[in-house]
Amino acid sequence: METNAEVLEDAVLLHQAADGDLSAVRELYDRHAPWLTARLMRRCNDREVVVDVVQDTFLAMWRDAKKWRNDGDVAGWLWGIAFRRMVSRLRQRKQLVLLPEWDTGNDQAVPAAEDEVLLDVEYGDLGAALRRLSPEFRAVVQACVLDGLTTREASRLLGVRANTVKTRLHRAKAQLRGSLADVRLEGWQ
């Protein structure tokens, strides 16, 4: 996990990249390409596509570095670029399959401790509420809300009808609201 100094240094490197410093681009690539690749590989069944998406992400970062508003961390900004590029590829190539993040092909798989910690850090009380959802509901929330897929894209990803995605998302949101309300009530006691 990045320290505050590394996050600050990422911002400095991104500003240097915006000024045309290729060594700053290389440093950002060396820091972030491995985790982007790993995270995208858990979503896509084609390594070649993932490598292309990572390359496209850093090309876009270099080209659009001046557009970064310095209102978050660079890693989050890069993930947004990478995921949007992956979704664009999904739309272009109908045979490409996005894999759910939780689908590792091994029923005995346990989420990585790092993923659990990041979920808590990134989503706080929402992370705990997400873990209380059924796998089907959590999958729909992950696809539609957290990853920004359309209902149709989520339907393809999850292998269910679009109406099923809509119904599950509606029910999941209701359960999340209830869980978060319970957390707030517990905080008052």
What does this structure look like?
By secondary structure, the chain is mostly helical. It is 73% helix and 0% strand. It is built from nine helices and no strands. Helix 3 crosses helix 4, helix 6 crosses helix 9 and helix 7 packs across helix 8. The chain is globular, with a radius of gyration of 18 Å. About 4% of the residues have low confidence.
Task: Name a few traits of the molecule.
189 residues, mainly alpha
Question: Structural class of the helix and strand makeup?
Answer: mainly alpha
How is the biggest beta sheet arranged?
A: none
Q: In percent, how helical is the residue content?
A: over 70%
The amount of beta strand, in percent, is under 5%
SS field, number of helical segments:
9
Order of SSEs: HHHHHHHHH
Could you say which overall geometry the principal axes of the C-alpha atoms support?
Answer: globular
Q: What's the alpha carbon Rg, rounded to whole Å?
A: 18 Å
Oligomer: single chain
The residue-averaged pLDDT reads 76
Which residue ranges are poorly predicted, with pLDDT under 50 across at least 5 consecutive positions? 102-109
Count of DSSP E strands?
Answer: 0
Distance between the ends? 34 Å
